[in-house]
Amino acid sequence: MTTTAGRALVLALPTGSVLRLGSVLHVAADWYVVVEGALEPVLAFTPASPEEALRVAFEVGNRHFTLALDGERVLVPDDPAMGICSPGSTCGSIACAPCSRRSGCSSS
What are phi and psi of 50, to 5 degrees? Predict the structure, then answer.
C-alpha cells in the first residue's frame, strides 16, 4: 500500500487481525501511519419491522457481504450482486437510498 504522502508500506498481520479507523500502526521521528477508510458506495434503508431487518441480514450474509448499522438505518454494499432493492427480489419492497460510508466504520 502507499500512504497519502507517497511512502510505500508493506503490512503483514496475523490471521484474524482487525484494523480499526484511527489505529496508529507506526510512529517514526517525522512521520506516522494511521488507519483511514476509503469511501465506498452503499445503499441505506430503515427496516419497517424486526422481521424485515432479519430477512435483509440473511440475504446480505447469504451473498457473503457485510452490513453496517447507522442509527436505525441499515447500510449494505451498493453492488449489483446484492439485488436487495430490485423489484422482484426477496426484499423488493424495501426502499433504498444511495449514500456512502468509509470501509472499516463501526458496525453495531
Answer: -60, -35
Domain span holding position 20: 1-36
Question: pLDDT by residue (tens digit) across 49-84?
Answer: 888 888 888 888 888 888 888 888 888 888 877 765
For the chain, how many residues are written?
Answer: 108
Does one domain contain both 92 and 65? yes
38 is written with which cell numbers?
476509503
> How many structural domains comprise the chain?
2
User: What secondary structure letter does DSSP report for 26?
Assistant: E
Cell representation of residue 69 = 448499522
Output DSSP code: residue 49. S
Q: How far apart are CA 108 and CA 7, in angstroms?
A: 33
How far apart are alpha carbons 62 and 59 in whole angstroms? Answer: 5
Sign of the Cα torsion 54, 93, 86, 44 reads negative
> Looking at the domain assignment, is residue 70 inside a domain?
yes
Is the distance from CB of 42 to CB of 101 less than 8 angstroms?
yes
